[in-house]
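Structure (tokenized):
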């Protein structure tokens, strides 16, 4: 009911007053608040000598992105005789100043925001201000930040975001506040987002510039150049628009902006400025995003991998598992046809090669019979163990044929995309290993424990164990590699890393297993391994060495995903936190 009080006060008083400024802030009309604040500063009003007045001006400045200006305004505190105000008000101003200094630090990439576990976000700090100062709620919950990035044209003649220096995993790439947010069902979000954008355009010159850069240019004006886009999309102070909305930001143009640039993350749909320059990739994903609910739905992008200077930043717009056909359907539903490296590999490089034939034969066999056989055995658990061995053998022979058909000139990520084609087959193989192992144990162990049985040195059981654990390691290694270059640090990738570590740990416990050598199936640094009695190639590793590598690989993946060290993760210990951390991804 009281909304619009700022306008009303301005109208009856003629000149802007502190009260109108505070009412604008209370109503969230921050751009009007800053217009009033500027007028007050110009008129050198005596009321500015009160602590509350200075704090209001600073809040209006900070709310429109002028953090430096806000901090300058509060510097007058260093000459307290300039200020009038109760002890409570003075304490309030200190609190506002501390918060603004913290925001300034964040905007330079420093500060507590970027610490902490998981999302790396601490709860938004509480301000110690007098109760009547409700207008301080307009202080931004988080400062915008842009890391070592720039906008450039990519090879597909699209604008993209590129690293300007080498970036390490977990580094914060950028943090942006939303232009519009919708928390409901995605399908119904467009109309609401467009209305929010129109509203923001009426009040904010900055939002208007940002949206102009997200359209494909506008009638009778040149499309935005990189320099224009970089200027408009970087954090900068806002102001009241000088001209009327004009014809170029129509509802139709904004529907197009929403369709092309919506982020669907953490059950929200939102539009952001600079993040809209990030292109999609089905492989080579090197960034992840989180919408931070407690911090005004700001979006935080982090590096997921090391990113070399000059490389493009990619974020997956949709789930990138599944066939080329499925991924094409998903990208087309979003209004474009994906031309990422992985899609180009599957569509142009692979067809007609031996590798394509081997993977097709493997997946045809899987889809026409192996999958059904597995489903059938799942329904008859009592018989599964005894029937799984032939199934496992067939799966292994397909995966080995696939490995041998690989082109030796492929880079590691191309090998990964290739292996990705047969992921369901690998999962099926891993399941079979478990079934046969349990069956053999039940058969042989009777009343005995596994370790006692192996200590006794039953040679047939040891041989069976080594074969099964080796098969498990082989399948899991290929799966880990497949995920490392597609949906890195996804739930499935982390699960495979952990299972691989467990498999090698089991391997090392088996009698004589450390004497077994694993040789690469392809003569390059692709970790595909086969158990052999004796090394025949120059490159080989023992199971013990591979156990150490798999442990490091698992710790690195969890460290990169959650920012936790190996002491915290405690792999293999009684306090092991793997499951708890993974539950945060898949509650
Ligand atoms: C959020 S924008 C990304 C920035 C965009 N490149 C630009 O210049 O404004 C999304 C649009 O970029 C293009 N795009 C992003 N990733 C792509 C990909 N992998 N293949 C083809 N086009 C892509 C599509 O036109 C898509 O609608």
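Design, position by position:
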């Amino acid at each position: 009911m009281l909304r619009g009080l700022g306008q009303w006060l301005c109208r009856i008083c003629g000149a802007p007053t502190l009260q109108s400024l505070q009412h604008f802030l209370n109503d969230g009309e921050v751009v009007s608040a800053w217009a009033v604040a500027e007028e007050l500063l110009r008129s050198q009003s005596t009321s500015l000598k009160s602590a509350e007045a200075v704090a209001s001006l600073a809040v209006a400045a900070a709310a429109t992105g002028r953090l430096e200006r806000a901090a300058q305004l509060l510097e007058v505190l260093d000459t307290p005789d300039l200020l009038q105000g109760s002890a409570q008000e003075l304490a309030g101003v200190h609190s506002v100043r501390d918060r603004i200094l913290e925001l300034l630090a964040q905007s330079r990439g420093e500060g507590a925001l970027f610490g902490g576990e998981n999302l790396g976000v601490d709860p938004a700090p509480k301000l110690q201000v007098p109760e009547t100062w409700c207008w301080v709620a307009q202080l931004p919950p988080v400062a915008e930040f842009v890391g070592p990035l720039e906008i450039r044209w990519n090879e597909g003649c699209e604008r993209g975001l590129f690293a300007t220096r080498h970036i390490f995993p977990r580094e914060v790439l950028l943090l942006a506040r939303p232009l519009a947010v919708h928390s409901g069902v995605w399908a119904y979000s467009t109309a609401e987002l467009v209305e929010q954008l129109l509203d923001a355009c009426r009040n904010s010159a900055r939002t208007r510039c940002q949206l102009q850069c997200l359209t494909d240019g506008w009638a009778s004006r040149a499309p935005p150049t990189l320099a224009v886009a970089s200027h408009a999309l970087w954090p900068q102070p806002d102001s009241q628009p000088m001209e009327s909305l004009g014809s170029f930001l129509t509802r139709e143009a904004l529907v197009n902006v929403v369709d092309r640039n919506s982020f669907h993350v953490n059950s929200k749909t939102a539009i952001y400025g600079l993040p809209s320059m990030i292109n999609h990739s089905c492989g080579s994903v090197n960034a992840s995003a989180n919408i931070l609910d407690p911090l005004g739905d700001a979006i935080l992008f982090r590096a997921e991998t090391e990113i070399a200077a000059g490389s493009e930043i990619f974020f997956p717009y949709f789930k990138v598992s599944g066939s080329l056909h499925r991924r094409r359907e998903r990208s087309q539903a979003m209004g474009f046809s994906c031309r990422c490296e992985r899609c180009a590999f599957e569509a142009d490089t692979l067809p007609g090669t031996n590798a394509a034939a081997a993977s097709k034969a493997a997946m045809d066999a899987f889809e026409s019979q192996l999958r059904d056989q597995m489903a059938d055995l799942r329904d008859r658990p009592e018989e599964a163990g005894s029937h799984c061995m032939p199934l496992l053998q067939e799966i292994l022979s397909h995966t080995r044929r696939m490995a041998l058909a690989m082109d030796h000139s492929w880079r590691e990520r191309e090998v990964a995309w290739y292996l990705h084609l047969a992921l369901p087959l690998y999962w099926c193989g891993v399941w079979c290993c478990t079934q046969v192992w349990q069956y053999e144990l039940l058969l042989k162990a009777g009343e005995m424990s596994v370790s006692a049985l192996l200590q006794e040195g039953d040679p047939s059981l040891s041989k069976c164990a080594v074969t099964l654990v080796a098969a498990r390691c082989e399948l899991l290694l290929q799966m880990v590699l497949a995920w490392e270059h597609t949906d890195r640090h996804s739930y499935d990738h982390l699960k495979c890393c952990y299972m691989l570590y467990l498999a090698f740990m089991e391997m090392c416990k088996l009698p004589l297993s450390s004497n077994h050598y694993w040789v690469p199936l392809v003569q390059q640094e692709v970790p595909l391994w086969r158990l052999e009695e004796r090394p025949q190639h120059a490159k080989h590793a023992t199971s013990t060495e591979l156990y150490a590598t798999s442990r490091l690989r698992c710790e690195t993946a969890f460290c990169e995903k959650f920012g936790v060290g190996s002491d915290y993760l405690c792999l293999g210990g009684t306090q092991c936190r793997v499951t708890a951390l993974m539950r945060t991804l898949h509650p």
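Reviewer-requested clarification: The first helix runs from residue 5 to 13. Residues 233 and 253 are 18 Å apart (CA to CA).
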